[in-house]
Write a structure and sequence with these properties.
single chain; alpha+beta; Translation, Eukaryotic Peptide Chain Release Factor Subunit 1, Chain A; Nucleotidyltransferase, domain 5; 60s Ribosomal Protein L30, Chain: A; 3 domains; 11 helices; 16 strands
Length: 379
């Protein structure tokens, strides 16, 4: 499971003044047809070509070419297994760091003295961690899941007998009722112990959401015994059997996360469209978003991960334009072509400390219909 400790090689990396680090973020989700049949390598080459256009001529050009070749060599044999790839390369220092991620990150390429790790740090801060408990009257398994990985933390067994023995005959009726009552008491103690274990686990790893799975009677009683701080984190109650394996459990959690993320995105886009319609510090549409970006007003950019569209950037004032050539509307200096205008907008927002929301699914369709991209504004 990726953690801040895993990023230490990047956070502590010291590059040479004459050999910056290539930081490359790629969409590798094979659910997108554009990423199949070497599409990932094609997209990487487009990002690298745009990066070369931005770079000044000089000694760094040769260094960038070397780092780009090293990255392309890696990608030629790369087998995608997630949604995004983060790759950092300094070929002259024989440095290569990569990690496949189960979340979508904005495709980007940077060539700077230090690795561009901000997207990874933000991802770690924003990604929700799930606590999961599988239980019945006899056993319980506690897990946590985040960033596409799952870890089992502990296992609990009822310390006392929770079975209720059936007997026949009126002479044994009282004994049977007492056995059933004892079994219920022991099951209650077991579930109470599981609730205590969950409290300790929450203290240790601070999960954001909680999923409970098991028979209705057991899950209902556990929910009742949880403290308010944990009960408020419960987002789903399932009926999976106690024998459910970790990989199957992880798939269920991933599907739940995807549904919740889709719902969050759709709520976000409805709020954006409503705010823009009322003139409340939001805009939709490329021209209006470009205008807000030029004024430094974009707090959060909301956009769709479609095919890149071309635009231009002013050689003098660095304003972005929908036009790929001609003169800047503000200072009349020439425009240079930008291969991915929305990607460049996302980079500027990120560099200024703003946030990014890259939409998929129904939310993306909704934004396209209203005007892609859009933005929440600072003022």
């Amino acid at each position: 499971m990726l953690s801040r400790r895993d990023l230490e090689p990047l956070l502590k990396y010291v590059s040479s003044k004459f050999s910056p680090v290539l930081s490359l973020y790629l969409d590798v989700d094979l659910a997108r047809p554009a990423n199949r049949n070497r599409g990932i390598l094609v997209a990487a080459r487009a990002l690298l070509a745009a990066l070369r256009e931005e770079s000044d001529s000089g000694p760094q050009t040769a260094e960038l070419d070397g780092d780009a070749r090293r990255a392309e060599t890696f990608l030629a044999d790369y087998a995608p297994s997630g949604k995004s790839l983060a790759l950092f390369c300094d070929a002259s220092e024989d440095f290569l760091w990569h990690h496949t991620l189960p979340v979508h990150l904005q495709p980007d390429a940077r060539y700077r003295p230090d690795p561009h790790v901000r997207p990874l740090l933000e991802m770690l801060e924003e990604q929700e961690r799930y606590g999961i408990v599988l239980l019945d009257r006899r056993k319980a398994h506690l897990y946590s899941a985040a960033l596409g990985e799952i870890e089992e933390h502990s296992e609990a067994f009822a310390p006392l007998d929770v079975s209720s023995r059936r007997t026949t005959g009126t002479d044994h009726l009282f004994s049977e009722k007492r056995s059933q009552r004892r079994a219920q008491e022991h099951a209650h103690l077991h579930i109470k112990h599981v609730a205590s274990m969950l409290r300790r686990l929450q203290h240790e790893i601070a999960f954001d959401r909680l999923v409970i799975s098991g028979p209705v009677e057991a899950t209902s009683e556990l929910h009742r015994l949880l403290p308010r701080a944990l009960a408020d984190r419960v987002v789903a109650t399932w009926k999976l059997p106690i024998e459910t394996k970790a990989p199957d459990l992880l798939r269920e959690v991933a599907a739940l996360q995807e549904r919740r993320d889709s719902e969050r995105q759709f709520t976000l886009i409805e709020d954006l469209i409503a705010a823009a319609g009322n003139g409340h510090q939001a805009v939709v549409g490329l021209e209006r978003t470009l205008e807000a970006l030029r004024g430094g007003r974009v707090l959060r950019l909301v956009y769709v991960a479609d095919e890149p569209i071309e635009g231009g950037i002013c050689r003098k004032c660095r304003s972005l334009s929908r036009r790929a050539s001609g003169e800047c509307n503000f200072c009349r200096a020439p425009l240079d072509r930008v291969r991915d205008l929305v990607g460049r907008m996302a980079r500027l927002v990120s560099d200024s400390g703003g946030g990014l929301d890259r939409l998929h699914g129904p939310a993306a369709s909704r934004l396209r219909a209203a005007g892609d991209p859009g933005a929440f504004l600072r003022f």
